[in-house]
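Annotators were shown the component list below and the corresponding predicted structure, then asked to write short factual statements about the assembly.
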Amino acid sequence: MKLAGLKTAENAHDESIWASAWVPATDNRPALLLTGSLDETVRLWRTDELSPAAPPLGGHALGVVSVAAHPSGVVAASASLDSFIRVFDVESNSSIATLEAPPSEVWNMQFEPKGTILAVAGGSSASVKLWDTSSWQLVDSLAIPRQESSRPTDRTGGGKFVLSVAWSPDGKRLACGSMDGTISVFDVHRAKFLHHLDGHFMPVRSLVYSPLDSRVLFSACDDTHVHMYDAEGKNLVASLSGHASWVLSVDASPDGAAIATGSSDRTVRLWDLTMRASVQTMTSHSDQVWSVAFRPPGGTGVRAGRLASVSDDKSISLYDYS
Amino acid sequence: MSACVYIPVQNSEEEVRVVLDQLPRDASDIVDILKAEQAPLNIWLIIAREYFKQGKIEQFRQILEEGSSPEIDEYYADVRYERIAILNALGAYHTYLGKVETKQREKDDNYVLATQYYNRASRIDVHEPSTWIGKGQLCVAKGDLAQASSQFNIALNEDQNNVAALLGQACVEFNMGENEDQYQKALESYKRSLDYYKRALRAYPNCPGVARLGLGYCRYRLGQFDKARQAFQRVLDLDAENIEALVALGIMELQTNEVDGIQKGMAKMLKAFDVYPYCSMSLIHLANHFFFTGQHFLVEQLTENALAVGNHGLMKSHSYYNLARSYHSKGDFEKAGRYYMASVKEINKPQEFALPFYGLGQVQLKLGDLKNALSNFEKVQEVYPENCETLKAVGHIHVQLGQIEKALEIFRKATRVDPKDAQAFMELGELLMPTDPGAALDTLKSALNILKREGEEVPVELLNNIGVLFFEKGEFELAEQTFKEALGEGAFLSFLFERTKCSIVDCGAYNGQYWDMTIFHQLEDEGISLDFPWDKITTLFNYARLLEQIRNSERASILYRLILFKYPDYIDAYLRLAAMGMERKNIQLSIEMIHEALKIDDKCPNALTMLADLELKSDDWVKAKDTFRAARDASNGKDSYSTLSLGNWNYFAAIRSEKRGPKLEATHLEKAKELYTKVLMLCPANLYAANGAGVILAEKGHFDVSKDVFTQVQEAASGSIFVQMADVWINLAHVYFAQGHFALAVKMYQNCLRKFYYNTDSQVLLYLARTHYEAEQWQDCKRTLLRAIHLAPSNYTLRFDAGVAMQKFSASTLQKSKRTADEVRATVTDLKNAVRVFSQLSAASSYHSHGFDEKKIRTHVEYCKHLLDAAKVHCEAAEREEQQNRLKLEAVRQDSLAEEARRKADEQRKYQLERRKQEDELKRVIQQEENFERIKEQWKNYSTSGGKRKDRSHFEDDDGGNGERKRRKGGKRRKKDRRKDHYEQEANIEDEQEEMDEAEAKQMNSQVEEADRANAHLGLEDSDAEDDMGYSAIIRKRKAWSESDEEDEPAERIRNPTPNGYRNSAGSDEETRGNGRSTQNEEEDDY
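Structure shown to annotators:
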């Protein structure tokens, strides 16, 4: 299990890059890397040469904070600080819909594994908004109930400010992480809040389920730790430390054997889940690494594993994962 | 069968038979007989000598004194030799008495008597050699060697081979050698002495063995040990019970320092003891031996005997020394000290016998009498200037007396003298640790190498200290290796880590795991020993601390818990766990841990200060102050940290209150200043106090001075990984900002962010944005704010600020007389964004309180909309202009086309039509341009006033804005107490406190608000300005107001340095009112 640097595209955007996601391969093209930046554009990149696959896509204001791709690879969504979500056709860049659910902000987004729902972390609304991907209508809002045990209220008004979301691979569960460090787990079909996962006390900026096991959830937190939870049993399975600053992003490898994390400490780390330890540290970035993403399997003739990372230093790095 | 003398009876043939071993006790009988019979004088002498041999000194003296009385002189006037012999015997006797006598006066009396007897003998016959020899011996006894030598020489002149004179001369030479300080000259003397002995032996080969003793001593002194041994052996052959020879041989055997030799030596000593139990030499050596074999009882017995029999100063000194040593080793320091003292008293100068000085020094050191100990060791040093042990002892005392420089010098010398003395290197290294870690590391490494090369056991402290130094240098891997080495076979550690890795924790009981010791119990049940000796606990702690530093916090926490499992009173482990909790914002855990620590010691200043910091963080001001005070009292005010924290508390108190009472503020500031100064007096190297003092200076507007202070602090703070003073960078940047050096301020903020925060601190980003704002770099300002929002999504103030920045950008762009349509379009976009941001805030505020006044936001929204409308006009205008340019171009092109066409087709009519059309177009354009010009005119009006405003606003910020925004940290004591174990914990706590401060500083950044407010005000003021556009009358009026208001202004200056919490709970109403008020003020000032 290792990462090998393939290519780094310097100045891929004009400003800090904040978001990345892989657009799955379709029948007539391989998977593309989708990135969003403070420069208010969303860009598409071909692998492995990291050449632009399309001209920069506009339509955003105040910086793109999140991008997500539909599992079909046809549609993608991008969201910016102005709380608009733009849904567009990947091939043509034509807008399909513009979503907003005021006064809720938009942070992380993720499509349901089958692609029927887009889940959006709703910031101060303390809820996750669910959008139907055929009608692009808001279908539900999963709100976090106020916790009984009153923790001293966060003075930044962070409370249950929802930052991150993750779907379990079977699509039954949805987890969301908030500013105060709590992670909430929902039963999506019953639209019911199940429980909290404790252990973090600082913002949880990224969540991901293991692709193999719908119980296993990974969380990336400002407290420099990555937690591995048994999300059903409410257990903290492991606490992974090693980053020197905030962990901003976490993604699980398609084979389920590893996770990768990006951190403010400018590094990307690869963690071996059987050893529960960091096995490799990549230092190709010179500023905060805001997002890491493993390429999903699929597409013709593409078997090699790929990991992409994007950073405040305006660059994209691509690694071979094997 | 015993000897007898026969006294001839006068005038008869008879003789009186006197059996020598049956001499009467009363010598008067004999004297009477001798006198009565007029016995020859030699018989007198024989009998006297016999008495002497039997130890009947009185009788001996009586007979001789009778025999030398004037009547005898008269009677035996012609018997010369015997008379001389009697006088000489008396002389010798008194010489001996004088030699043995300890009291100086009686000694002198005896010598005087002896001299008198010898002189009388000389008067009888000046040439008698034995008199000269006697005189010589008297001189030897008196220590007058030169005189003695000349006396012996006279005898020798008479007879070259006078054995007694030769021996005397040899003795003189030997003693001269003994007294000689210079080694070479002493050797010469010994050689000469040896020659005399040889001559004596040649002259009288059958002389008693004793004469050969001197030979042996000379040989010994000359270093010819084998020959010396032969000489002594010869003495023993002649006289198997010769004590001196036995002792001498014994000493020589002992000095071989080999088991065999020592055994033989001891045998000799024992024999000497058997022969004559009162020989102090052998007693002392026996005692010495038994000291080393640990038989202290024997030591005491023997030494007491030695003391009883011997009267020789040096011998006594040795004896006392032996006794002292014995008590010393038994730990009875008081007695030991007394005997050492007695021993020292017997010594005239340390050269004779330095050891008791050393012992006395040791005991005094032990009993804490540093000064006397030092003087004693220094005496030893006089004798042995290169003795490493003494050097170390002296160095050690200097350390204890706080004379570090001196100590350093001495230890350096010690390491030079003996480059293999690991102990000296260790001490030196430890001394260097606080001042020169690099050199300390090198020195300690040498110590380690020495120990390893010698194959000796390496002390844990040494490895620990080396590890700490590596740690401090940032060489974590080496540090880890060293700690592991110090911990030794820590197989159980990896095992422990392995095991805990698999433990699953119930989320609900997350904090519970810190109390859960079951894992350790389990391991112990499985037979895995978790025991580690107490001296390794520090290293274990340091290792944990290192793991923390290299971000292996899981393992670190396990180690801390392990320490607590084994040593539940180890407060520092609790505090570290608390600090780790705090770092992860697990406040509850922190508090629990601190309370646990306080349970162990409710006066632990470190725990108290930590608690106070937490209380401050949760906004419990009064409680925090009390706790800080308790901490200060607990450490008797010696703990500068708590004093410093109190200073900070006062500073914060000064700038926090909303209803600012200038008086109250001044008192608080003054108090803060006082406390900082106090800390600085206590500990002039305290960076944090210096920083605090700088802040107060800046607060009072002395920017240049404060800049100097900050710069110095910044320089001092670079270097150690334990000193992370981001605050001073920020403060420096604030000062640059205050002085209008925006570019420098930006640089400083950016460097600070990168260096200390991994660019994650939204607060510093806010400062940066503020600077960009002042520098009118609108886009940079906006982007910086967007980054800050991205980092701190729930901080709505940042959004508000971003809105304001965009609004300001738009307004300023619209003010410009020249701008492209693109610019205007960007303006419009930004205005739209601003409207969106503000409306979102307004919407969000309906169910969230972020402390904004809805009304205010609405004003902004309206203003932005208004601007937007205005901008739309501008935009249309600009677009039209552009269009028009395009059309112009088009026209030109078409012109040329037409030209061509005309040339080609000559369609006059078409051309005219075209022309008319063009004219129409032109007219319209002109009209538009006029229209535009008018608008421009209006703008111009505005922008002039805008320019003025700018200046003012700078000024305003100078005293209003940045002063308060100084952040600072609570202090950290750089307590340089780095003795072995202590040190690291200290450092840790410091570190930890530093971290606490960090958080504290953040918390205090209520100052956020400050900046925000300032932004907000500027923004709003703009909006008013825009509203007022064109209404110059009003402007003028306002100007007039502002003048009259000027005086009130400083008091009314806006300030909202409230901590966020405060604002959430109570303040929002008041605060907004304050804002409104100040807005007005500013605006008035501006015009």
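Statements collected:
1. Chain A has a mean pLDDT of 89.
2. The CA atoms of residues 292 and 309 of chain A lie 4 Å apart.
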